[in-house]
Amino acid sequence: MSENKYDYQYITGKDTTTGFSWPPAILGSSANDKEPSGIHTVNDGGGAAIDNYLERITGPNGNETTTLFQRVNYDVQVTQTPYQINNIKENPGELYITYWMKTDDISLTGKDIWRAIWEYKTKNYATYKDGFRMIAFMATDIRGTPYWQFQGDIGPRQPVWRIENYDIPLITDEWFKVEYYLKWSDGPDGYASMKINGHLIGEHHGQTTSKSDPLDFIMLTQVYGNNYPMYQWVDDIEIWDGIPK
């Protein structure tokens, strides 16, 4: 992992297992971009609020593996550390993302706790009227009951659709597989789904953007919430232009 530049840390080089190189080159994004894809260290307090590094640990299949470890130690001001795919120039027809993830067992204890784990935004999302975001959460409600949340919105307090799943238990301190799939559309033929360990958390039939706003960036992994410290490991990331057969 290379040094900070423009508030980013970069993973570079070829994966010896798959042969693919980092950063990922998808949807027009390239390693040659002025600000290539990488870990965006947002408001890290001069460095102390965030830790990111590659760590060798026992992976989801019981074998030793190199994982991406990410931690937010405390909040400075909306402190977060996503792996961000930048400079996207093409909207996907279909997009499928999957990886294994393991979180800490302390940040999701208590009432009204949330942590975002994945999201994407379109170019005009910051206007909170002309763009779109899709986002996934692990959370607890005001009674302290845990649940998964999957939603599309035009602003943080303006959901277009929202799914809360209390039936599939939250998983902490052990590996679980996440899957996100979408068909890009501004209309009713769009589709989005989220699965955990093969179980459907939620699906949406309808728009996956708003006002035809193009995709801007994908937060492939995200560490952002309201209880600290929070940390996670990620392994075996796959990105496809459709559900693999």
Question: How would you describe the overall organization of this protein?
Answer:
- With 245 residues, this protein is mainly beta.
- 0% of the residues lie in helices and 46% in strands.
- The protein has no helices and 18 strands.
- It has strands at residues 8-9, 13-14, 21-22, 38-40, 50-58, 64-72, 83-85, 94-103, 114-122, 133-140, 146-153, 159-165, 176-183, 191-196, 199-205, 215-221, 224-225, 230-240.
- The strands form three sheets. Strands 1, 4, 7, 9, 10, 11, 12, 16 and 17 form a nine-stranded antiparallel beta sheet that branches. A seven-stranded antiparallel beta sheet has the order 5-6-18-8-13-14-15, with no helix packed on it. A two-stranded antiparallel ribbon has the order 2-3.
- A hairpin with a 5-residue loop joins strand 10 and strand 11.
- The radius of gyration is 17 Å and the shape is globular.
- The relative contact order is 0.22.
- The model has no long low-confidence stretch (mean pLDDT 95).
